[in-house]
Amino acid sequence: MTDTTNSKVVTRFAPSPTGFLHIGSVRTALFSYLYAKQNDGKFVLRIEDTDKARSTPEYEKDIMDGLEWLGLNHDEFFRQSERADIHKKYLQKIIDSGAAYISKEKVGKEGDREEVIRFKNPNKKVAFDDLIRGHVEFDTTELGDFVIAKSIDEPIFHFAVVVDDFEAGITHVIRGEDHISNTPRQILIQETIGAPRPIYAHLPLILAEDRSKLSKRKHGEAVSLKFYREQGYLKESLINFIGMLGWNPGNDEELLSLDDFVKKFTIEKVQKGGAIFNVEKLKWLNREYIKKLSANEILEIVYQKMPDYPRELLERALPSIIDHISVFGDIDLLVKNGEFDYLTTDFISKAGNFAKEKLMWKGESDKALTAGHLQFILKTIKNIPEFPTPEQTKAALWEYASEKGRGQVLWPLRFALSGKDKSPDPFVLISILGTTIASERIDAAIKKLFL
Ligand code: GLU
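Above: the input record for the complex with glutamic acid. Below: its predicted structure, written as tokens.
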């Protein structure tokens, strides 16, 4: 094996732009990036777009945008399709040397005669020491003289990968386990073109919770970074989550930033077995990272999603809003379901337009009694600050509510303020709305009872 210990570490991420950036690919990119950074090396991005039928600029853009958004910046970039001349040069060289040959064969249903270029297999055992999987041995005899190009201008994937890795000086190939069976072929090609052998690290599969392989076919868009980004997941939680798919710091630390990963990541400690994608864990992480944002940052994001709501009410409602979401995207559904109607300015004419019976506690039919409770509250909250803490309002009303029955007193109050069967408790509602708005709503509820 070629000694690469003295050379500068160069890793690469080599996605094919044939689909939206997959979560598994993000992990490959992340681990390759981390390994380069922690060794003061270089991280190369190579778009493998030689499959012209399936590669699209849209997917390429999605991949590039996704990596940039996550902060996985590359030091060098190229597209495989732009290197056709170089591939051709190497191909010609090994045909000339006799290590590969042009073979005319029947292909396709019609049995058309076509040329392919086959690699003359030396039929030997190939062994390599994978940083994650340990010693791996393959007998390449069973591969036969495998195809390396459809024509001199159309190398297939294995050949292009080897040439490009060689020319870019890649020292460490970190990639998904699905490529492990490609490795012996690629090693044989390397030996033929005189390329040093990089060090390999094959990452374990990512599995869904039922332990099936996470795949687009079975799990749809939930396998792409885009899906999580569109739901409003923060990049910090995605990096944290993906960095722990198959690796952990070996202690109980759960919150790691990209910088923390650069410091702590150890490729040798990546697990061999499949890594389970636990979406609840991702949600938990996202909540943790939301909590780390400043109130102003959260307010900006929430306000963008709820531009029709009064900003100062949103500001006071932030803790309640955050309590109900895992990702900012959850807000859209909650708004649609009317969960935040209590924050609207036209509450009384819209969300407040409910049947008066709704104001009365279970089994209660005495409107005057309910109205009396509301009147007491109206009077009482005149004597507390305009924006009381929930505790202040509670202290002012608790004794009365305990004496008259909490449901009897607090249910009508909560309903008058929220117009919903479920909402934050009335003390929290008053702290958000302030006593002026609360009083208007209570007043409207009393009038409604007597209508
Ligand atoms: N282009 C290949 C893929 O997207 C990766 C090739 C490699 O990492 O060697 O799966």
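Notes for the reader.
The chain has a mean pLDDT of 95.
The chain has three domains: 1-78+155-292, 293-339, 356-449.
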